[in-house]
Specification:
The protein is mainly α. It has eight helices and no strands. The relative contact order is 0.11. This is Putative ABC transporter permease.
């Protein structure tokens, strides 16, 4: 059997290559945009940071889509399904390798933000000092603690949402593939449509819960009690629970119903 680490290396390398291409295109786009701003005479101190932040949105979307595409290909590829590893290990490592790819992309974006903020560093330092003095006021004594807790909670919530999205995409994909084994084309389209509707309704339900949690946190930011702070962590656990259930279903489909097609 292939070890967890060897399988992780095998699945992570192509995803990091994808991320390197995305980052390279991102850097080229930033440089070309800055050159254009210089040509127009519109370049200001905060322009590099603003441009870099705006492109980061597109980087995140493209990275997520390409990671999802690569992950789903692995489940139906002979080259990967014939690796001597259990379906549970393949599913887990595939999910982890996609997460590593996204983290790598996130780190590169942070590095680009820091570089782009260098011309803006003096103003940024002044704003930070002003915020620091503001947070040290007696009536804002819980601000720093709340900021740390909410920041950590937001990061964990974002991770949980990303994992849930990937798990849902995989479940839809594998369910669709399993249906093709014994349904005619007309029935396949109908059941896929029903499946999409169910998933969309489930996502709207989960999103409404998350939105309520976040609103509760932001509306009581300076006067949080333990229950209010914990709500965002409860939402994370809630999402991870959904992710675990969907993962169990995907692994079952991999073991019993899904065949390779390439």
């Amino acid at each position: 059997m292939t070890s967890f680490y060897d399988l992780l290396k095998s699945l992570t390398r192509p995803k990091l290559r994808i991320m390197n291409r995305i980052v390279l295109i991102d850097v080229i786009a930033i440089v070309l945009t800055l050159i254009y701003q210089v040509y127009r005479g519109d370049l200001e101190t905060d322009t590099p940071l603003a441009i870099t932040l705006s492109y980061s949105v597109f980087v995140a979307i493209v990275a997520f889509v390409l990671m999802s595409r690569n992950s789903e290909h692995i489940f139906v590829s002979d080259a990967y399904r014939l690796i001597p590893a259990s379906d549970t290990k393949l599913y887990s490592v595939n999910l982890l390798s996609s997460f590593i790819g996204m983290v790598y992309a996130g780190i590169t974006q942070v590095v680009l933000w820091v570089i782009a903020a260098i011309p803006f560093w003096g103003d940024f330092g002044a704003q930070f000092k002003k915020m620091f003095h503001y947070t040290m006021n007696s009536d804002k004594q819980n601000f720093v603690r709340n900021m740390i807790l909410v920041t950590i909670g937001a990061i964990l919530l974002a991770i949980a949402m990303t994992l849930l999205l990937w798990a849902s995409i995989t479940l839809i994909h594998l369910t669709g593939d399993a249906l093709t084994a014994f349904l005619p084309d007309s029935r396949q389209k109908f059941f896929r449509f029903v499946l999409y509707v169910v998933v969309i309704v489930a996502f709207l339900y989960v999103f409404s819960i998350i939105e309520n949690r976040v609103d509760g946190v932001m509306n009581h930011f300076f006067n949080m009690n333990g229950d209010t702070i914990a709500s965002i962590y409860y939402a994370t656990i809630y999402l991870l629970g959904f992710t675990a259930l969907e993962s169990v279903g995907s692994v079952y489909l991999l073991k019993h119903w899904v065949e390779t097609d390439s």
